[in-house]
Amino acid sequence: MVKVRQDAWSHEDDLLLAETVLRHIREGSTQLNAFEEVGDQLNRTAAACGFRWNAEVRKNYEKAVDLAKRQRKQRKKAQQQQRKPQPRRTVQPEVNLPMTVEETAMPVENSTMQVQTNEVSTSAPSIDSIIHQLNQLKTSNQVNEQINSELEALKHENEEVRNENEQLKAKVEEMSQQYASLQEDYQTFINIMDRARKMMVFDEDEVTTPSFKMEKNGNLQQIAK
């Protein structure tokens, strides 16, 4: 299937990318496998997922990445401990002593049961091995709880950032409306000033200046137009 390029990353997409990468780190896998898995789920290329992780998402999950790496080391160490062969107990050779009359009369079933009990005791794991495995399980559970706690904190922080973005969008919308109203008032004011200027020019054209002439006796007489 051809993957379609999508430029918009949602909050859920980033969260899925972070959880998948952290899981692959804990399990000892590579980030490339995580990018391919997320790409299949979001219909994106692995390169796009890798670029998104390195450019935007990783900086918000630095502590979680460190915890995942430590958990990977602990898990690898536990696997190596399990692969080591357990030391075998040496069975002391039995000394064939002369049997008494009572031991000779012991039923064969009791002797068979004793042999089976000895076999079970030699094949059972040691107490130190059981304690070590329990400690590893306890440490792993504590790390998982800490990671889950940090993920919840990050989710809460992302939710707060989203609410702040919504508030900022509302403020920008309000300011845009105010700017549009001011621009409309300014245009109305310009139109009024333009009409007033035209009326003043029209009145000046209608006003005529009077003309006078001087008579022989030196008096001025207005000339009617």
Folded structure, characterized:
Helices cover about 70% and strands about 5% of the residues. With about 220 residues, the protein is mainly alpha-helical. Among the domains are: about 1-75; about 155-210. Strand 1 and strand 2 form a beta hairpin. The longest helix has about 80 residues, at about 125-205. It comes from Alkalibacillus haloalkaliphilus.
Describe the structure concisely.
The chain has 225 residues and is mainly α.
Strand-helix topology:
Elements: H1 11-26, H2 31-42, H3 46-57, H4 62-83, H5 101-104, H6 108-123, H7 127-206, E1 211-214, E2 220-223
Antiparallel strand pairs: 1-2
Helix pairs in contact: 1-2, 1-4, 2-3, 4-7
InterPro entries: RsfA-like (IPR014243), SANT/Myb (IPR001005)
Domain Myb-like: 1-57
Coiled coil: 137-185
Key structural traits:
single chain, 225 residues, mainly alpha, rod-shaped
Order of helices and strands: HHHHHHHEE
What general form does the structure show?
Answer: rod-shaped
- The fraction of residues assigned to DSSP E strands is under 5%
Main beta-sheet annotation: 2 strands, antiparallel
What structural class results from the helix and strand content? mainly alpha
Quaternary state of the chains = single chain
Q: Separation of termini?
A: 95 Å
Mean pLDDT: 78
Count every beta strand, where a strand is a DSSP E run of 2 or more residues. Answer: 2
How are the strands of the largest sheet arranged? 1-2
Low-confidence stretches: 97-123
Helix segment tally: 7
Rg over alpha carbons: 46 Å
Helix content: over 70%
